[in-house]
UniProtKB/TrEMBL annotation:
Record-level Gene Ontology MF annotations: metal ion binding; molybdopterin cofactor binding; oxidoreductase activity, acting on a sulfur group of donors, quinone or similar compound as acceptor
Enzyme class: oxidoreductase
Catalysed reactions listed for this entry: L-methionyl-[protein] + a quinone + H2O = L-methionyl-(R)-S-oxide-[protein] + a quinol; L-methionyl-[protein] + a quinone + H2O = L-methionyl-(S)-S-oxide-[protein] + a quinol
The protein's required cofactors: Mo-molybdopterin
Cofactor: record remark: Binds 1 Mo-molybdopterin (Mo-MPT) cofactor per subunit.
Entry's family note: Belongs to the MsrP family.
Protein name: Protein-methionine-sulfoxide reductase catalytic subunit MsrP
Annotated source species: Stutzerimonas kunmingensis
Keywords carried by this UniProt record: Metal-binding, Molybdenum, Oxidoreductase, Signal
Binding site for Mo-molybdopterin: 92, 95-96, 150, 185, 235, 240, 251-253
Its biological purpose: Part of the MsrPQ system that repairs oxidized periplasmic proteins containing methionine sulfoxide residues (Met-O), using respiratory chain electrons. Thus protects these proteins from oxidative-stress damage caused by reactive species of oxygen and chlorine generated by the host defense mechanisms. MsrPQ is essential for the maintenance of envelope integrity under bleach stress, rescuing a wide series of structurally unrelated periplasmic proteins from methionine oxidation.
Top-level taxon of the source organism: Bacteria
Phylogenetic lineage: Bacteria, Pseudomonadati, Pseudomonadota, Gammaproteobacteria, Pseudomonadales
Metal-binding in keyword set: yes
Amino acid sequence: MLIKIPASGECRESEVTTEAAYLSRRQILGGVMLSGAAAGLPALAKASERYPGVTSAPAPKWFADKLASARWQAVVPDGEAITPFADASQYNNFYEFGPNKGDPARHASTLKVEPWSVLIDGEVDQPGRYALEELCSESRLQERIYRLRCVEAWSMVIPWLGFPLADLIRKAQPHSSAKFIRFETAYRSEEMRGTRSGFGLIDWPYIEGLRMDEAMHPLTLLAVGMYGRTLPNQNGAPLRLVVPWKYGFKSIKSIVRISFVREQPITTWQSMAPQEYGFYANVNPKVSHPRWSQARERRLPGSLFSTNLRDTQLFNGYAEQVAGLYSSMDLSKDY
Ligand code: MTE
């Protein structure tokens, strides 16, 4: 198990110090010791000390303010290292910037991420257009170190910074008629070269969706950062979804609209190839993609001498927390 969810959003300073002591005793963060904690610095050591070598991007004031009180997660040492930032930020899927893995890192800087607002609409009491900082205002930033398993059979381990989607749902006050949530990515062809190029298969904007109980689950995160800094544009700045037990394509990037709806939304990959990509997209080693097996995965980074293959886990290793959501479903039919 990679994550322990705090019982509540509250976290006393003493708990944080205990975590720092924990961190100082173990090799974490891809083989780097937390030198600040070892030297007796406060547990809320700067993110740059936690992730040495990770470039700290210029952050808006609201993010910097929140970072100071972020709740950092200790890694449960079960033999999995955090993926180096260089790999997580240079090997990406973000088709709005091109179909190749290096395209998003090369081209996503054209996306203007400040200011950013999100339209909340549909079956809710509090619809409206909210500035990103307003959406986050009542939530404390939490670090969540999650596995990310792409449907293409590669995986990473990424330390996200964000807040539970459930916080936003409570703020929006959905009606009981809202059974699903539909998410929409920005579609700005002048800033997203992939949307105006020949990769014409996708009907923009990119759309994703969750059932309400999946959306309310405490593992489901809205991320505004990773590796102790804001999200790089190629990773979905300034706001993306992270649903760690589902294939990565559910984790929609650069969200501009969140709609509370009655019916299951039609999502981008499902509408393009329904026999290959389902709405649920739960990670499952026993349900093959029609063109390849999902039993194993390639943990990035690999090397010339090792492909770093490992067995894929049901629900990406989060079965204990989420299997109950699907107890009445046939996972081979509702894939
Ligand atoms: N969101 C949008 N808007 N466009 C995309 O092309 N790709 C998805 C998902 N979110 C995608 C997206 C896929 S297929 C994956 S595997 C993850 O983003 C990759 O996230 P990463 O690049 O941060 O690793």
